[in-house]
Prior knowledge:
The complex is a heterodimer. By secondary structure, chain A is mainly α. Chain A has a single domain, classed as LemA-like domain (de novo design (two linked rop proteins), Up-down Bundle), CATH 1.20.1440.20. Chain A contains 8 helices and no strands. Chain A has helices at 2-54, 62-74, 81-102, 106-110, 112-147, 151-154, 170-175, 180-185. In chain A, α1 runs antiparallel to α5 (112-147) and α2 runs antiparallel to α3 (81-102). The longest helix of chain A has 53 residues, at 2-54. Chain A is rod-shaped, with a radius of gyration of 23 Å. The N and C termini of chain A lie far apart (73 Å). Chain B has 2 domains: 9-208, no CATH class; 214-331, no CATH class. Helices cover 52% and strands 19% of the residues of chain B. Chain B is built from 10 helices and 9 strands. In chain B, strands 1-2-3-4-9-8-5-7-6 form a 9-stranded antiparallel beta sheet. The longest helix of chain B has 49 residues, at 66-114. The interface between A and B is medium-sized, with 26 and 26 residues.
Amino acid sequence: MFFGIIIGVVILIYVVSLYNSLIGSTNKTQEAFASIEASFQQRMDALVSQCEAVRSYMDHESEVFSSVTKLRQNIGSLKTSEEKVAFDQELTQAQTLFRLTAENYPDIKANENVLVLQKTVNELEDRLYAARRAYNAAVISLNNSIQMFPNNIFVGFFGGKFKPMETLKADEAAKVRPNISGMLNRKD
Amino acid sequence: MEHPSFISANELYAKLTTDIEQVNGKRLELVAKRKKNILKSMIILGTIALALQIYLYTIDPASLGLLFLSVPGVLIISWLIGFRIGGEFRATYKTLVLSIFQEIIKDFNEKMLTQSLINESDLKNDVHYQLANSMSTSTFNHMQLFDRAAEWIHTEDHFQGKLGKTAFDFLEAHAGYTQETTNSNGGTQRQEVTLFRGILFSADFNKKFKSITTVRSKAPVKKSLRIIFSIIAAFFIIPISLSIFGSFTEDPESGFIFGGVILVVILLLFRKFFRKKQQQVELESVEFNKQFNVTSDDQIEARYILTSSLFERLMELRQRLGNHLTLTFKDHNVYLAFAMKNSFEHHFSKPITSETIALEHGTFTSILSIIEELDLNTRIWSKD
């Protein structure tokens, strides 16, 4: 009897500790994702400012500006995490498109404002990359907690509250060369 | 674009010929002065000792042996005279060391300007030097390079300057704390414990950040020791549990289980209450995680600072500077501590040759290379 109570207490302590640790890990993934979201507006603002700064040089590159305008309109309607991830990739593509288009204009490359804005964008991109890495690290840590033995046995007790999550495949997307001409020919 | 290389030791020697000749001239003067002073003191002290001996001999002929006892006294005084002259030479030698430092900085900055890697406005060839005690313990502790705070610090050879776009400074430091122990008689003994002895280097980091991130080299020996201790501890837990908790129940087996539960609870509470505020940062590189322990109060900024290219650079740096490398990223700066023998010293009995210059050149370039190795002059971010 005494032996059974002791075993029960040990298991209870373990399960409570596991539950709290999984809640902590889930919150960390949410916190990391929130920092990715927070960067959307900053990157959008930087991109819009860049467009404003160079509008006089490349006014006829209407596709670049319209893609940016469309993204700016969409930013408020993002709800699911899938939509947010897709938006993040579109924003990255728009920035790449802008940068590649701007490279054809020597006057732009020499423009002090554009250089400053470009540095801001570089910094924001680096911070975003760091946020993505932090999110992936948090997801891996959560997945390890869920899938490793003996946690995998006890996780079932929590009624499917904790499930392994997908890491962001941003690196894979970055390996794909952006379809610049496709983006330029896109109709809004 | 690839950054320029440092001036070579031979070029440096050629540039500093006049300074070297002056210091060597001063050295010869001091050597001659030392010889003269020693001779003078030996004659004076010897005469005094001899006169005293003659006087004592007239009182007591048995005191003749005292003359031999005065010989070590004369030699000690002569050595002290030599030591004083050594101090005079040290100050002269440091001016040469400063010229070496200045030439290396100037040459590098001018190459950067020629290659348009910096603007005229960035060019700053001024250097500063302070011989001793330029850092307080509070400044040292502010860097948060070590787990515990230092209570005392001795510093020397503090150099400051700007290499390309990066402002930096470095110095030799010996820091530690005082430990009090009680001996078997109940008395208190104070012992000075070294926390760090080597080079402290700080530079303006090329990115802005608000958090504090620390990167410490892991000692492989300590890890293996930890495993051995864990195994030994596991063997001891069973008999200790039985002896402590066995008496709670009639059955020793139940007592052992009861003891085990108490230990688990204690460990969980310990983990909860003594967890460090700074969180461990697990990075993507397995090799980097093996070599370094990273803690930070901001997981994202830690990754903003520690990019995959910086992993490689830090691993290379550790290979070059040794296993005791510690870095802190704080206040937009990077602080480094690494072990290095006492440098920038030269004994006045030896002439200054091209080898001396090569040695100092090697020390300086080894330290200044950190800026290039960490790529601190690349500033594509908003921090210029």
